[in-house]
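User: Hey, my collaborator sent me this sequence without any context and asked if I could get a structure. I don't really work with proteins. Can you help?
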Amino acid sequence: MLDQGNNTELPPIPAKRYFTIGEVGELCGVKPHVLRYWEQEFPALNPVKRRGNRRYYQRHDVLMIRQIRALLYDEGFTITGARARLEGPQARVEASMSHQIVHQVRLELEEVLALLRR
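Assistant: No problem. I've predicted the 3D structure and written it out in structure-token form, which is a compact way to encode the shape of the chain:
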């Protein structure tokens, strides 16, 4: 679902908890006014708003924005098509598969840890 394969030219996401709209714009190659517009069009994109209505994005928001950017700019989707792709059954299947992969990797790491402790 949140594949970064098409975002190789974008900088890596730093290990921070919150990002300002300017930082997200630089990380995703999108202007701040475009990010504000996408917030209206994509319900899943909902940054934390603090004092003075300032937006603070989290890592999952940045990944979502990169996915939206890839769908719109690289794959040629319309806003409606990108929204449907992100919310549709295919997105749920991909999320479920990701969850299963993470679960499997965790089990394997626990087995490795148990072997190392012996």
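In plain terms: The CA atoms of residues 94 and 100 lie 10 Å apart. You can pass these tokens on to your collaborator as they are.
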